[in-house]
Amino acid sequence: MEVDCQSEDCIVSSFEDDCIDLGGVKDMRLEAEAIVNDVLFAVTEMHVSHSLNSALDVAYINVEIREGTQYCLELTEAGLRVVGYAFDNVNEDLSTHYHETVYSLLDSLSPGYREAFGNALLQRLERLKQNGH
User: Fold this and answer.
1) Which structural domain range is residue 78 located in?
2) Dist. CA 105–CA 83, nearest whole Å
3) Mind listing the pLDDT tens digit of every residue in the chain (133 residues)?
4) Number of domain units in the chain
5) What residue ranges are annotated as transmembrane (predicted)?
6) What would you report as the CA-atom Rg of the chain, rounded to the nearest whole angstrom?
7) Is residue 73 helix, strand or coil?
8) Is 64 helix (H, G, I), strand (E, B) or coil?
9) From CA 29, how far away is CA 76, in angstroms rounded?
């Protein structure tokens, strides 16, 4: 599997580097876009929701993992959590726990994500080895 990364460090980049600091408040919409760009290579589909209202303090991300299951994720200062089991679907009765990172959340949901992430990391290490680093 070939991974197309614009940045050589895309696998381990921090999405916080792409955020705009607005007086101590991160724009969660921008943060959500950065998250999508960071892990899109390891899921079937992922995009920021255009149907659900995002704001400075909350954004929603739709993700379909490699196993075919769809989720709606909520991103806040507390982290990421599953809020629905379909795109653009928020179930207020769900009480899922927050994950600090998208990597942790996807690792808990998808063996296919773990495999894709591991393969991309191995390819990166192999390229470094071939370049004599």
Assistant:
1) 15-130
2) 12
3) 334 443 334 444 444 444 444 455 579 999 999 999 999 999 999 999 999 988 899 999 999 999 999 999 999 999 999 999 999 999 999 999 999 999 999 999 999 999 998 899 899 899 988 887 6
4) 1
5) none
6) 15
7) strand
8) strand
9) 10
4 within a domain of the structure (yes/no): no
Identify residue 11 by its one-letter amino acid code: I
Phi, psi at 75, each rounded to 5°: -115, 120
- Do residues 72 and 116 touch, judged by C-beta distance below 8 A? no
Cα separations in angstroms, 81 against 18, 94, 124? 21, 10, 29
Query: pTM of the full predicted structure?
Result: 0.76
The pairing of strands 70-76 and 79-84 is: antiparallel
CATH number at residue 57: 3.30.2280.10
